Amino acid sequence: MKLSPLNQRRWRNFKSNRRALWSLWIFTTLFVLSLFAEFIANDKPILVQYRGSYYTPIFNFYPETEFGGDFRTEAVYRYAEVECLITTGGLVDCFDDPEGLIADAQDGIVDGEPIEKGWMIWPIIPYSFNTQVEGPGAAPSPPTMQNWLGTDDTKRDVTARVIYGFRISILFALAVTVVSSAIGIVAGAIQGYFGGRVDLIFQRVLEIWSSTPQLYVIIIVFAILGRSFWLLVFVTILFGWPALTGVVRAEFLRARNFEYIRAARALGVSNWTIMFRHMLPNAMVATVTMLPFIMTGAIGTLASLDFLGFGLPTSLPSLGEMTAQAKQNLQAPWLGFTAFFTYAVMLSLLVFIFEGIRDAFDPRKTFQ
Amino acid sequence: MSLLSFENLHVSFKQDGGLSPAVKGVSFDVKKGETVALVGESGSGKSVTALSSVSLLPDSAVIEGSIKYNGQELCGAPEADLRKLRGNDISFIFQEPMTSLNPLHTIEKQLAEILLVHQGLRGQEAQNRVIELLTQVGIHEPEGRLKDYPHQLSGGQRQRVMIAMALANGPDLLIADEPTTALDVTIQAQVLTLLRDLQASMGMSMLFITHDLGIVRKLADRVCVMKDGEIVEAGVTKDIFDAPQHSYTKMLLDAETVGYPVPVPDDAPVITETKDLRVWFPIQRGLMRRTVGYVKAVNAAEFSIRAGETVGVVGESGSGKTTLALAMMRLIDSDGPIVVLGKDIQGWTQKQVRPLRADMQIVFQDPFGSLSPRMTVAEIIAEGLSVHGLGEYASAEAAVIEIMTEVGIDPDTRNRYPHEFSGGQRQRIAIARAMVLRPKLLVLDEPTSALDKTVQVQIVALLRALQVKHKLAYLFISHDLKVVRALSHKVIVMKRGDIVEAGEAAQIFDAPAEPYTQALITAAFDLAVKEGAEV
Questions:
Q1: Contact at CB, A12 and B16, closer than 8 angstroms
Q2: Which residues in B lie closer than 8 A to residue A267 (C-beta atoms)?
Q3: Over the stretch B71-82, which tens digit does the pLDDT of each residue have?
Q4: Is this prediction's ipTM beyond 0.90?
């Protein structure tokens, strides 16, 4: 795809803003990495070799019996018994002394008999966001070599939760931003283009709508339907879409009297074609400048809802919930610091990027 | 002795890492008490030259060379020194009187502010001076206008207030940047006369920037003709007009729209007609939005246009010319019959009108605003075909190439964007967009007003050629009477929505009956104020 000269200029402008460019690279790297969080922080190995065949526990369900165990439930790979079974190729003695047997099996021979030695490749952080860390000490436990950022009040690894929490925050914000912008643009376009009575009625509806208390609706809806990620996305969009309507409406009100819009109407072009082919590109600059506020706003909304306990289901990793825990466990400062720095880095990066985008779209700004 | 002198001035603008030059080595001077005109087409660097004198250019400008005011070097002078000069010794008048005045402040406040800043006048003293200034610029009963806001004044009055602001501190030099371009011809004549009188009585120097040679001849002592950032010819006004040396100056001087339209055969069919066409906007008041009156934008318009015939519509701004055009195109609501090709389309829905749109097309005034900046020229021209079908063309591509050749643009440039074309080329593209549908009626809403004189001539020639070739009916709207005379068979004169005079073009131009028409024609052809005419 070839960029138009205007967009090439914008891209050049953006690149000349070093801070925005670096922020974009760092953020993209972090976000892409977090998309593969399952391979970075997980309580299942990435790859298992057992008796010559390969297993991928992240994608597939394997009962313990698959590896010569007793249970038909999923193998718990971090247990010494399972590790022993996989290493030794399923020796029954694993249930008595797994640690000893693993040590013995390193040379491929157990009790003078050769075995089919297997192995597991673990992610860097061997915990998922909901893995209970086993070990001594009360929760929340401070950072150790094993849990880099300590554990939270239910003994879950904080590092893993940060990675998953970052991902879910960004995905939530993206989903909300994309959908609510799309709705907001269409709504603003209709109001601005048709104007008059349509505009008048629509504006009043919007006023009523935006004075509805969002928090109560969320509490009520969650009480009836139960908490879920997608329901939260839905409700946030329900109240978030008017954000762009005003800007787009204003741009369309301005553009509807442009001569090229008149010319298109004189050619007999249909209303929808005029709106989306001729007028929308005008509104795009204003839209792009507004988008950052919607995106960071969505992250903030999620954080505050989680903090209050009205957000994501407790089974999901959430940075807001971590902040709430930090408040309740002031003796465990690693929780507070982690939550603070995660939000600070995430929001700063986004703000820097969007600042660069806004400047790049500003036709009056000159860049070297 | 010279008051302001430019020596080897270079101005360039930073753009995308490079420098694009706007003024390349300009040298001239303005002596005490004389008027120097900078003449050139748009983009020739005349405004940039003038604005560079007191550093009013945007930050991206790089100025080199020497600018001396009364022997003091201004190029690279500290901002504080320049600020003292601006408004005190050197004053400015800009083109657009609406945007140059603050809409939220009264006339008195804006004038008094200048007096306070530069002379420290306050209270009654300041008010007296404001009234004196307003009287000086010819505002009637200035006492009653002190509390008016800019929107309560007419365009000409606003420009007079701007002149009063410029004169408030008794400047030695007045820089006027196209001060009359945005005004109607009648008001233009009045403002120019005012400027000339004021200059003579106050002994100011004036640097006058314009593209209109008619004004220069009336006003200037000396002329500098600029082209592409250079002065190609300079000298005493009379010499330049009588014996231009440079080919470009000759071209500018020859760029007068001349000729008359080709006569129409008597049996030519009527393409469109209307009778008692009204566009009234209701004025609503009160809680129940009761209609208490109407703004009569167009009142009882009546005309008919035959194939190959042009009906010219003239009048000052606000007289309802454009409203009439939009009503004829069914782009705004109106009352009264609109007959196109024998069918009265008044009251039809947009869907019903759509098939007919191929037969009636419109070209707008602003060649920069009428083309979508984000579509290529080929896309713009072919858009109508996507609505109305290809007709006799083999493909959209072929249609675009054919029509671009016909209106005189290189078809190889069809994949470029509008901003890569000049004003005249853009207007040709706008004409091509309308002509590709092979219409029978073309409404032209000030198609030449935003163009330089030399380009105007070409567009008028093109329109005339197209009319003859395709037997087009034109509804031609313009405030430029010279262009109207060159194109129109019949003329309608409009004033505040009413048609005050209508008839054959020759009759209207040679023997206008109404005083309003007489005033318009005098102002347009002689740049003089017609005494006693109520305008």
A1: yes
A2: 357, 361, 383-384, 387-388, 433, 437
A3: 888 887 888 888
A4: no
pLDDT in tens, A248-285: 999 888 888 788 888 888 888 888 888 888 888 778 87
CA distance B410 to B428: 11
> Which residue in this structure is represented by tokens 């971590």?
A322
Contact at CB, A264 and B361, closer than 8 angstroms: no
Asked if residue B107 lies in contact with residue B126, where contact means CB atoms within 8 angstroms, the answer is no
Residue B481, CA atoms < 13 Å, CB-side half-sphere: 25
Helix (H) or strand (E) holding A200: helix A196-210
Residue from the list B353, B360, B372 with its beta carbon closest to the beta carbon of A278: B372
Q: List, for residues A122-170, the tens digit of each pLDDT value.
A: 888 888 888 888 777 777 888 887 878 888 888 888 888 899 999 999 9
How close, in Å, is residue B13 to chain A by CA atoms? 10
> Are the beta carbons of B14 and A269 separated by less than 8 Å?
no
pLDDT of residue A184: 92
Question: What is the pairing mode between strands B310-314 and A53-55?
Answer: unpaired
Work out the minimum CA distance from A197 to partner chain B, whole angstroms: 14
Using the Cβ of A52 and the Cβ atoms of chain B, whether some distance falls under 8 Å is answered with: no
> What is the rounded CA–CA span in Å between residue B114 and residue B120?
9
Q: Do B374 and A281 touch (CB under 8 A)?
A: yes
Yes or no: say if A155 and A133 are a contact pair by the CB < 8 Å rule.
yes
Residue A140 phi/psi, 5-degree rounding, is -75, 140
Please name the amino acid found at residue A215.
L
Point out the residue among A263, A268, A368 whose CB comes nearest to the CB of B17: A368
Closest CA to B491 of B473, B506, B511, B480: B506
Using alpha carbons, list the distances in angstroms from residue A197 to A190, A194, A202, A204, B423: 11, 8, 8, 11, 38
Best of A259, A261, A265, A275 to mutate (most B CBs within 10 Å, chain B): A259
Backbone φ and ψ for B433, nearest 5 degrees, come out as -60, -40
Which of B97-106, B131-140, B371-380 has the least mean pLDDT? B97-106
Mutate to test the interface with B, among A267, A272, A364 (most CBs of B within 10 A): A267
Which of A4, A258, A268 lies nearest to residue B357, judging by beta carbons? Answer: A268
Q: For chain B, first and last CA: distance in Å?
A: 42
For residue B280, what is the enclosing H or E element? strand B270-285
Instruction: Please check whether residue A263 touches B, CB under 8 A.
Output: yes
pLDDT tens for each residue of A3-17: 666 778 788 888 888
B16 vs A267: CB contact, 8 Å cut-off? no
Q: Distance of CA B371 to CAs B107, B359, B366, Å?
A: 37, 20, 9
Q: What is the pTM of this model?
A: 0.72
DSSP assignment of B2-55 equals EEEEEEEEEEEEEETTEEEEEEEEEEEEEETT-EEEEE--TTSSHHHHHHHTTT
| Model confidence pLDDT, tens digit, residues B66-119 | 888 888 888 878 888 888 888 788 888 887 766 778 888 888 888 888 888 888
Interface probe, candidates B372, B417, B436, chain A, greatest A C-beta count within 10 A: B372
Out of A259, A268, A270, name the one closest to residue B370 (CB): A259
- Nearest Cα of chain B lies from the Cα of A6 at a distance, in angstroms, of 9
> Would you place residue B527 in the very low, low, confident or very high pLDDT band (cuts 50, 70, 90)?
low
Q: What is the mean pLDDT of chain B?
A: 84
- The phi and psi torsions of B177 (rounded to 5 degrees) equal -100, 100
Calculate mean pLDDT across residues A19-30. Answer: 93
Comparing alpha-carbon positions, the chain B residue that sits nearest to A4 is B374
Residues of B near A (CB-CB distance < 8 A)? 14-17, 59-60, 326, 329, 331, 350, 353-355, 357-358, 360-362, 364-366, 369-372, 374-375, 383-384, 387-388, 417, 430, 433, 437
